[in-house]
Design goal:
With 190 residues, the protein is an alpha+beta fold. It contains three helices and eight strands; from the N terminus they run ααββββββββα.
């Protein structure tokens, strides 16, 4: 009897194992490359989202300042991390449209604990009962408002805002100056 016919084959040859390992390593390398590229794309878009959030904040502040109103009952006030001023309430879907067009006190404030900027709008003369607050920026390290006035009682000529925020664990700064419209400064108080 031939011994080779009786011998059973129980394993893989070295060549078969090397071929399988080579194919698996190529597949793993391809998957890791795709995964790393996806992480890079996500981080890039995440940083762009932070930049866009700050641009939206400064544009919203600019729009509020430009739709401002003179109202003796709502004074201008500014501090290191807060700004309050009179403005006209815009009619926004979801809000109480009966208050659209009325004077409102708009306040932008940095909550240092939560590291977010909130925008509060209180319609005059209704007070806190008709107040809305919304978070408009996150991951904010610092906020500073500067006001340029002719005198202490006068409506400001210019408002400058400086915002430091975290973008992918790097601190970035945006600084923007907004001129107050001339008609706003010279029109009479209601």
């Amino acid at each position: 009897m031939n011994r080779t016919l009786l011998k059973k084959k129980y394993g893989f040859t070295l060549i078969e194992i090397l071929i399988v390992l080579g194919l698996l390593s190529m597949a793993a390398l391809t998957i890791m490359t795709v995964f790393i590229q996806e992480i890079k794309v996500f981080n890039r878009f995440s940083g762009m989202r932070d930049d866009e959030e700050m641009m939206i904040f400064t544009e919203r502040l600019t729009r509020d300042l430009r739709s401002g109103a003179r109202c003796a009952a709502i004074p201008w006030s500014a501090s290191e991390d807060a700004l309050s001023f009179p403005s006209i309430k815009a009619g926004v879907e979801g809000d109480n449209l009966l208050t659209a067009g009325l004077p409102a006190k708009v306040t932008y404030r940095l909550d240092r604990d939560k590291k977010e900027i909130t925008r509060t709008e209180t319609v005059f003369p209704y007070g806190a009962d008709n107040s809305t607050a919304r978070v408009i920026a996150l991951r904010v390290a610092s906020l500073k408002f500067e006001i340029l006035r002719e005198s202490e009682e006068a409506v400001p000529l210019r408002v400058t805002v400086s915002v430091e925020y975290n973008r992918q664990s790097k601190l970035r700064t945006i600084k923007k100056s907004m001129m107050i419209p001339v008609g706003y400064r010279t029109s009479g108080s209601p």
